[in-house]
Amino acid sequence: MMPQRPLRSPAGLLHRRRPAPVAVDDVRAAAAAVLPGLVTGGLRAAVLTDPARGPVLVLAEDERRTRLPLRDLAEDMTDAGVDPATDGVAAALTAVVARRPVSDAVAARTGVAVLDWTDERRSAVGWRVVVRRGERTVAWTPSDRADAAAVARTRTGAAARAADAGGVLRVEGPVALWSHPGAPMLATAALAAPERLLARIADAGLGLRDPNVVVTPTRPLACAAAGVADRLAGLTGEACVRLPWTGLTRLAWL
């Protein structure tokens, strides 16, 4: 009988497949490489030394200040399976900077109104101001410095810009689909000017009278007659909200 080969340890196999950890020095090197290109407008970014937490990435923009220890960033990147090579860490760090909080001034200048979930159960939607950063959109939360009048002005400006946020219309039978290929969250921005969207749908050859919309934030917006919209909502397989066209003006701000 041939001698049986020893089985490889499953733990050892998992160890070999586990990606190498991202080190603090990897994050520091990526910061030195990418931060100069990300600092635009009022954003300031630097790696500073904290006596208690070691090197810290500091992002400052208007009234917003974010401090992120490189040790925590390295651990998060390791847990997420980020490639520790230069390009992988640089891409992950770029995404971290893109997720930074939105300042009041930036929201006032460039914010766009979109529909977003009002609760974790995803049972309803409301208007929210977001700022686009590449393909990503980041929601604005007013700071303590923003009074009611400033918040109202920012929301009004965001609603006005929403109408010109762009998008692509596709008609499939009795359904009009409106999407935004650059930043999916911006698809619902078109509902800030619903009559303009309805006119574009009519120009495309689909006449809708008192339509309904099926809203799934980050997904294409579907517009159809009430019965068709009801069937679509039942078939989508994910959380969505069906709204009558007249109900759009009654949605609250988040």
Annotation keywords:
25% strand, 254 residues, 35% helix, three-stranded antiparallel beta sheet, five-stranded antiparallel beta sheet
Summed over residues and divided by their number, the pLDDT gives a mean of 91
- Rounded to the nearest angstrom, the distance between the terminal CA atoms is 74 Å
Give me the side-by-side strand order of the main sheet.
Answer: 7-8-10-9-11
Proportion in β-strands: 15-25%
The helicity comes to: 25-40%
Give the CA-based shape: elongated
Largest sheet at a glance? 5 strands, antiparallel
Please count the helical segments: 8
Give the SSE order as H and E letters.
HHEEEHHHEEEHEEHEEHE
| Structural classification | alpha+beta
Regarding quaternary structure, what we see is single chain
Record field, number of beta strands: 11
Rg, Cα atoms, Å: 24 Å
Low-confidence stretches: 1-9
Describe the structure.
This protein has 254 residues and is an alpha+beta fold. It is 35% helix and 25% strand. It has helices at 10-17, 24-38, 70-79, 86-98, 104-110, 148-162, 194-203, 226-235, and strands at residues 43-50, 54-61, 64-69, 112-117, 125-133, 136-139, 168-172, 175-179, 212-215, 221-224, 241-244. Strand 7 (168-172) and strand 8 (175-179) form a beta hairpin. Helix 2 packs across helix 3 (70-79), helix 2 (24-38) crosses helix 4 and helix 5 runs parallel beside helix 6 (148-162).
